[in-house]
Amino acid sequence: MRLSILDQSPISSGKTAQEALRATVELAKHADELGYTRYWVAEHHDLSGLASPAPDIMLGIIGSQTERIRIGAGAVLLPHYKPYNIAERYNMLATLYPGRVDLGIGRAPGGSAEVTMALSDNFLEQVRKMPESLSELLTFLHDDFPKDHMFSKITAAPVPEELPDPWLLGTSEKSAILAAEKGIPYAFGHFMTDQDGPQIVKTYHERFPEGKAIIAVSVICAETTEEAEELALSNFLWKVQQEIGEGKDGVPSVEEAKAYKFSNAEKGTVEDVRKNTIIGNPPEVKQQLQALQLLYGTDEFMIVTITHNYETRKKSYELIAKEFGSTIS
């Protein structure tokens, strides 16, 4: 089983965005040393407690401070951008870091309605045109427009020796089918949805048998089950705060979470989050990931870990890497 990391660059309460972004760079360096396969950075816009709106900027820094780990976006929110611009940016990264760049593509807005209006025009129309935009992006990457096409005379320069690997990210059958139709790998956000993920990924493989799939899953690992459960409280409270329009101070501390009085409705939110989160000591986490592997029929998981303390997040990834040994890359 290969293991990778998806980093949303969470800001902890009492910390700054600068500290969160520096923690992302440091965690990427550590993941490189631990043997993780990929390190993807998410794109969010003015969302409470998340620090990275521009994955390509972060990847330029991360690439310069790592040696072998694949780096990528998880994901570029394509409806906000022209495909040519994205092709240029990721070709540039692939030129700097050959054979190491992934280009994950998503269709979500990544922020509020007001943010969407500030970022792009006619977002819903761009979402509707997503299949065409994705095709255009792929054609720019491969530089193979027909000779009579208006874009046949331009190139998304610089052209790298090894192109970035495109992936489509999603949480629905619609996204799985689109990835299969375009003949590209698919990343399913298990941690983001209560839909039937295994069936969605099965649909992808049925339509594209040679395709590759990654499952993104939320995991919190600690030396003991009790410690892991305690660390998870921060993330649970943060999700509740985000749902009611709060959480702007970032991921709360364990102490804050312990002191908080959850309403019955909020307890329901916590249970929903818990269902999609793997929590435990290293053997328990390994067992649960292996059980998910059987369900999904895939050989790679992308782990999302959010705790208040950056060191406990780092430690969680260390413990998982140690438990799986040399099989994670």
Helix coverage percent of residues?
40-55%
Number of helices: 13
The biggest beta sheet is recorded as: 8 strands, parallel, barrel
At CATH level 2, the architecture is Alpha-Beta Barrel
Radius of gyration: 19 Å
Mean pLDDT reading: 96
Structural class: alpha/beta
CATH class: Alpha Beta
Which range does the strand content fall in?
15-25%
Order of helices and strands: EHEHEHEHHHEHEHEHHHEHEH
Number of strands: 9
The CATH superfamily label reads Luciferase-like domain
The tally of structural domains comes to 1
Which geometry do the CA atoms define?
Answer: globular
Q: Strands of the largest sheet, in order across it?
A: 1-2-3-4-5-6-7-9
Quaternary state reads single chain
CATH topology: TIM Barrel
* Uncertain runs: none
Distance between the termini: 8 Å
Structure write-up:
With 329 residues, this protein is of the alpha/beta class. It has a single domain (2-225, 279-328), classed as Luciferase-like domain (TIM Barrel, Alpha-Beta Barrel), CATH 3.20.20. Helices cover 47% and strands 16% of the residues. It contains 13 helices and nine strands. The protein has helices at 17-34, 55-64, 83-96, 113-119, 123-128, 130-142, 173-182, 197-207, 225-243, 254-259, 264-275, 282-296, 310-324; strands spanning 2-7, 38-41, 70-77, 101-106, 165-170, 186-189, 213-221, 277-280, 300-304. It has an eight-stranded parallel β-barrel, surrounded by eight helices. Strand 6, helix 8 and strand 7 form a beta-alpha-beta unit. The chain is globular, with a radius of gyration of 19 Å. 46% of the residues are buried. The mean pLDDT is 96.
